[in-house]
Each structure stands twice: as C-alpha cells, then as structure tokens.
Specification:
The chain is mainly α. The longest helix is centred in the C-terminal third of the chain and has 56 residues.
C-alpha cells in the first residue's frame, strides 16, 4: 500500500511545484507590464529594480523546473512509462492537472514574450529618437562653428608649404 501512496505524493508535489511556477510566471508578467511604463528617460533606477526582481523570479523558476524534472522522472519510473506524454492517459487525473497547469503556464509565458517584444520596440523607438536628437545637436554645433569661423591664432606661425 505504501507503493500506491508514493505516486500520489509525487503527483501532489508536482502539482504544488506547478502552482508555484504559475504564480512566479504571473509575477513576471506583471513586472514585464510594469516595465513598459518605465521605458522613458529618468526611470532607469526603478526599471533596474524591476529587472532584478524579474531575474530572481526566473531563477526561482529554474529551481522549480529542476525539482519538477526529478518528480516527473520518479513518476515515470514508478509507472513504467518512457515519457510523460505516453503517460497522460495512463496516469490518473492528478497528472492531468499537472498537464493542464503546464498549458496555462505556457499561455502566460506567451503573454510575457509578447509584452517583452512590445517593450523592445519601445526601446528601439526611444533609441532612434535619441539618435535623431544627437544628430540634430551635432548639426547645430557644426553650423555654429561655420558661422563663427576659426579664431585667429595669437603668436602663432604660418608656414607656407607651396613652393
């Protein structure tokens, strides 16, 4: 009987890990959406804080994924299956719950990736605007120097190279 409870314990652990992972991905999505509001000049410190928090969540997901792999390997070994896909019908509804959570997490990751893509586009637009501003400043500086001309050299020498 203890052999029967072991798969149940592993399924419970897998479900708990997937729920934790889903929560972290939801937090990452919220941070990614918040980053969009901070992609303007003068917001760098707050933006960096969000990026660091997001990185900590990603590191947490990496640890969860390692634990999930261990649990999944244990379940496969106990069930005698070669892969989790083959076991989706063979395992009980607890495994189906894990698979459903995996699908929901994938949808959340897609939302994160889409928001990231939009953020990157905003950054590129800001960079293009900054380059235009810098080019405008360079052009104005060149124009100002052309009107001012060069200042006469005091105490300098003129060497004529033409012979």
């Amino acid at each position: 009987m203890s052999g029967m409870s072991l798969p149940g314990n592993l399924l419970g652990e897998a479900t708990d890990l997937m729920v934790k992972k889903k929560c972290l991905v939801m937090e990452i999505l919220q941070l990614t959406e918040a980053q969009a509001k901070l992609l303007k000049p003068g917001q760098a410190e707050e933006l960096l804080r969000l990026i660091e928090q997001r990185q900590r969540y990603i590191e947490g997901i990496t640890i969860i994924d390692q634990d999930l792999q261990r649990v999944e390997d244990g379940l496969l070994k106990l069930s005698g299956l070669s892969s989790s896909c083959a076991g989706s019908t063979a395992l009980n509804e607890g495994w189906q719950q894990v698979l459903d959570l995996r699908k929901r997490i994938r949808v959340l990751w897609d939302k994160v990736n889409n928001r990231d893509q939009l953020n990157r586009q905003i950054i590129v637009q800001e960079l293009v605007a900054l380059k235009r501003t810098l080019q405008g400043l360079r052009t104005r500086r060149g124009t100002m120097q052309a009107y001012r001309g060069t200042a006469p050299q005091r105490g300098g020498y003129f060497i004529d190279h033409k012979k």
